[in-house]
Amino acid sequence: MNSKAAPNASDAVYLDNAATTPLDPAVAAVMCRSLSRHGAFANPASIHIAGRASAHVVERARSQLADLVQTDPRNLIFTSGATESNNLAIVGAAHFRSHRGRHLITMPTEHKAVTDTFAALERQGFEVTWLQPDREGVLATGDLESAIRDDTQLVSIMHVNNETGVVQDIRDIGECCRRRGVLFHCDAAQSIGKLPIDLSALPIDMMSITAHKFHGPQGIGALYVADRPHCHIQPLFHGGGQERRIRPGTLAVHQIVGFGEAAAIAAERQQRDLAHLQALNDRLWRGISGLPGVLRNGSASRSFPGILNASVEDIEGESLLLALEPVCVASGSACNSRSGESSYVLRALGRDDHLAQSAIRFSFGRFTRDSDIDTAIVRYNEAVRHLRGIMPTRAA
Questions:
Q1: β-pair partners for 130
Q2: In the listed set 265, 290, 306, which residue is the last one of a domain according to the structure?
Q3: What mean pLDDT is reported for the chain?
Q4: What pLDDT is stored for residue 391 in this prediction?
């Protein structure tokens, strides 16, 4: 028997909302009702009355998500989350259009669910151009224009960077792709439900969405596929007629119901939540930026306020992360935080290994309080001063 006491999450000061957000209580309530014997528990593919009841709540949730992003509900395909959506869009579109060309474009600062997918396609014989952003993480549309060739078929650029919060101009990127007849996929895991998205007006062909980044359940997401000629994807899985045969499998009704409720709440609260996040971001930066050697990573003027990423000179990152407890933060993206490596995103922006390795990502959500920020400020200042007092000076 393990004698070590289990960590108690209730003791945490949670500032890792870019990794996942806590469920909104209203979302949890509708999910519990769906899971009950008298709720929508049946398989929505069944034609009996219980199955039709489940199908009805699924379509209601699809409409709620469609209202959030301003599109026809028929353009949304439910998946298990943004990782699956990214794979389905990128691999599915690349293979469907491979007879037209095998050249693809992305950035080295994308989420691993995108960079690893493109790396896999390279091993299958596709050619990938990895566009470099500027030192603040922003992609120049002119660089994209220059990189597009006659055989280019797909561009994938994320909306909000999951480590730095940098916001790309997806309208300009999409218009560039439209002019050249290239499909544009956007990973919007960090922006849906937080920033206004109008897919009826944006020149985007495919967009990846996940619920757990805006106070919905984990394990459920969606892929937007525009209703346009030549915008088609090849399925990755086979075995059923669900989700237009693009993503077969029994639908997770209770998760979809929660997804829809989270979307409805986000649509109603979006401006209030955004103002709250901005106030938290400003409060934290005022509290830590006075420390010598603290540097903000990414663009201060083109950044989503729910993420603040800071490096500090002459500090070892893992020690800083541990010294900040019970403040829960990240040293990079959650999917890569256990590797011990410095952030590949920050290295791509020109940070040296020491600064990249010392980076801390603070990320805020609807339920983050001013007192949480104040605790983080105190802990960060104390931790940096303490570690500088005990660490040997780094050799030049």
A1: 106
A2: 265
A3: 94
A4: 72
3-state DSSP assignment of residue 362:
strand
Residue 189's nearest CA partner among 276, 57, 282, 69 is 69
Residue 3 lies in a domain: no
Check: CB of residue 77 under 8 Å from CB of residue 243: yes
Distance CA 152, CA 128 (A): 9
Q: Which of 226, 249, 265 is the last residue of a domain?
A: 265
The rounded Cα 100 to chain-centroid distance in angstroms is 30
Contacts of 79 (CB under 8 A, 6+ apart): 85, 88, 220, 221, 222, 223, 247
Enumerate helices (H) and strands (E) in the chain, giving the number of each.
Answer: 11, 12
User: Of 160-174, 232-246, 326-340, where does the model show the most confidence?
Assistant: 160-174
Catalytic residues: 335
Q: Tell whether the model's pLDDT for residue 189 goes beyond 50.
A: yes
Location of structure tokens 């897919």: 199
- C-alpha 169 chain-centroid distance: 16
For residues 321 and 384, the answer to whether their CB atoms sit within 8 Å is no
pLDDT exceeds cutoff 80 at 341? no
State phi, psi for 367 to the nearest 5 degrees. Answer: -100, 5
